[in-house]
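STRUCTURE:
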């Protein structure tokens, strides 16, 4: 049972809201619903939500616009998109805007519940690095006095605090990354100037749930690239044809 997990369902169809609320509540979740962007904004101000199930086609501000706005506002609540528009293009757009998953409507309630639990497991999983071969040129470990050093990576003026999950650009502006984007960035920083295959990156980003995201890794890399695109540094993550991706910059590890 998920007695402390709060889910927010956003859909303009009252019947769908009622059915989803009843179904998820019966499985132990705390569930509330919103019919539009205004109700969503009000509910977001009242408490912290563990996950949002968001419909795309709604009157007024649609789901994709809401998703984009929440990303810009720094809201990191994981979002699963539902939409009657189920083409690959629509799915890719949703993922590019920051959704953790995308399901066509009408979705089987059991499948949606399984997807919700998968996303929640992923975002709650403790930060651990998957096993992989040691990088050919790993950053030098900081010298200390015996106490454990806080792993802070720097590159081209950027700073990444692994423990506190804080990413700051060269102007010291904080950058918001989704859980999967942060995991990808960490993988690149721990393996600089080394080609990582798509399979390796999928595992870094999604762990044991990677099979469900075999078509999403390029989209997530694209999202991460755009957030790191400062002053023409778009080649920080280089595509290596037929092999994967490489973090194409010197990385330092500081205490």
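SEQUENCE:
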């Amino acid at each position: 049972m998920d007695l402390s997990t709060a889910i927010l369902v956003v859909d303009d169809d009252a019947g769908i809201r009622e059915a989803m609320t009843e179904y998820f509540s019966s499985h132990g979740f705390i569930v509330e619903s919103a019919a539009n962007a205004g109700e969503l904004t009000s509910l977001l101000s009242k408490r912290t939500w563990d996950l949002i199930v968001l419909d795309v086609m709604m009157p007024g501000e649609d789901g994709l616009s809401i998703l984009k706005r929440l990303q810009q506002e720094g809201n990191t609540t994981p979002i699963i998109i539902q939409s009657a528009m189920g083409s690959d293009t629509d799915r890719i757009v949703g993922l590019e805007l920051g959704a953790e998953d995308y399901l066509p409507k009408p979705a089987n309630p059991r499948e949606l519940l399984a997807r919700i639990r998968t996303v929640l497991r992923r975002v709650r999983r403790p930060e651990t690095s998957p096993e992989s071969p040691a990088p050919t040129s790993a950053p030098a470990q900081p010298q200390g006095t015996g106490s454990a050093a806080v792993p802070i990576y720097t590159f081209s003026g950027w700073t990444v605090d692994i423990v506190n999950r804080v990413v700051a650009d060269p102007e010291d502006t904080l950058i918001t990354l989704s859980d999967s984007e942060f995991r990808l960035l960490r993988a690149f920083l721990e393996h600089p100037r080394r080609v990582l295959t798509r399979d390796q990156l999928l595992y870094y980003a999604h762990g044991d749930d990677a099979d469900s995201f075999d078509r999403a890794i390029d989209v997530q890399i694209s999202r991460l690239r755009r957030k790191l695109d400062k002053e023409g540094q778009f080649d920080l993550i280089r595509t290596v044809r037929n092999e994967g991706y490489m973090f194409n910059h010197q990385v330092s590890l500081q205490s």
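REMARK: Confidence is low (pLDDT under 50) at residues 126-148.
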